[in-house]
Amino acid sequence: MKSTHGVLAINKPKHMTSFDVCNHIKKITKSKVGHTGTLDPDATGVLLVCVGGTTKYVPFLMGQSKIYESTLILGTHTRTLDTSGEVLETKDIQPQSKETWQDLVHSMIDTHHLAVPQVSAIKVDGKRLYAQKDFDLDLLPIKEMIVYDAHLISWCDTSVTTQMHVNTGSYIRSLNVELARRSSNIGTTQDIIRIQNGPITLDLCQDLPQNLEDCVFLDAKKLFSSYPCIELDDITPIIHGKIISFESDEPLLCVIRDELPFAMLEKTDVGYKVKRGLWYEDVSY
Q1: Domain covering 66-197 in this structure, CATH number
Q2: Among residues 40, 42, 138, 157, which one is catalytic?
Q3: What per-residue confidence (pLDDT) applies to 30?
Q4: Domain boundaries 1-64+198-218, corresponding CATH code
Q5: In the annotation, is 40 catalytic?
């Protein structure tokens, strides 16, 4: 049986884990799968699922920035940093004006070093953090989280809805805790929606397919459009892993062949070397 290859943009349903979605896709495609960045079970939005040979794409699509919308609920702090978790603390809300909130949200455009949520998929000592129920909160890993852009969408006395453009690996729940702190409040997160992963936006997503015929695979070339792309007449040096010399200052280059990603090249002192071949079976170049 011919293997299935391609990348699906799924609008992840609420109350499913990213693993649940991948497991579902694996069953209907009968192929290996991988996703490009975990979404919380209560979160929805863009989840890219790479099927078959396109699982080679995962580290490069995962490394792309992402845009989220979320709502910060003021006056409550929970164990999970979202509204699904056990309430640990409540506090009177310190109301702020719309102008103040706009300034506070804009101030989040920065590089932050914040603790990850206790309930998260990051591994500590080889074990997922969410599985370590008695983990010492003072020992939570600190991660660099970069906010490239941030906007206030709406606000009221009890909640604030924002859009944040962040680097891969950022935790919106942690960033919202910091936003609450800057407003002299405590807070927890509700309704996270990933509206963009690299160049793929929510409007390009499909609902969870129920069979192989429902699967609508993305234009693979578009997936890598946030990287500098080149086309080469001769791909033999790439296949043999040789150093390729040409003028460019880009740290990574994507080689396109017949409208498909063929390889990622990495700049070195002596030229470009193959970081990862992206070709796979069932495709003739």
Answers
A1: 3.30.2350.10
A2: 40
A3: 94
A4: 3.30.2350.10
A5: yes
For residues 271 and 242, what is the distance between their CA atoms, to the nearest angstrom?
Answer: 10
Where the chain has pLDDT below 70, the residues are: 1-2, 282-285
